[in-house]
Amino acid sequence: MVFVPAGSFLMGSAEGEKDEAPPHTVFLDAFAIDRTEVTNAAYALFWKADGGPESPHTPGSFEGAQWPDVARERPDHPVVGVTWFDAAAYCRWAGKRLPTEAEWEKAARGTDGRVWPWGGAFGGDTGRANVYSGGDGYPQSTAPVGRFPSGASPCGALDMAGNVWEWVADWYGSDAYVRSPRKNPKGPDRGGVRTLRGGSWAATRVYARTTYRNSSFLPTERLRDVGFRCAADARK
Predict the structure, then answer these.
(1) Could you tell me which CATH class the domain 2-233 is placed in?
(2) Which of 11, 20, 37, 112 can pair with 78 through a Cys bridge, CB separation 3.0 to 4.6 Å?
(3) Distance of alpha carbon 139 from its chain centroid, rounded?
């Protein structure tokens, strides 16, 4: 994990979607966040401890490939096809938790208001993120975690732009930034969907912005470009 010190940062954007506004200053206590997305290999340890094929947290299978085989073939790729509940269960098993939306954004953009984890401009074909580059179909797929070190965030977290969408703890609220407390916000008390962050290999660069909020999927859905990373309170 990487450490994110206590302090304030700018959350949201005036240039993005309506639900990214208004930009506002938020104070967060210190926390830690996984340096990379949770891999197939790491998730397999949890899955086996949870009953293996009998586990209710078995990731989804896509295009005829069963997840245990995918895990063996791609151990260093991020696990995908996990529901929000699967992600939360893994984090509990690991002694961690899902990051709040505010924690995720601070870890991604730092304290200087970055549009992407590495700065204010995408910079063309820089090899900084695994995002969809356009054209017919989706020829890309997940990449091994940490494949793009030049795309690191200010705290040293990797793949916070692209590769897979990441579940966060919060319920989604379109007006959350209007109502949110300015210290350690945790999102609405209830809702219909959980927020996803960071873009993916199947989404273009605009969705990989540090402030973009994805509210498209139910927490029970399993998708081939959705994974997660964990967070934890800082040790005192």
Answers:
(1) alpha beta
(2) 37
(3) 22
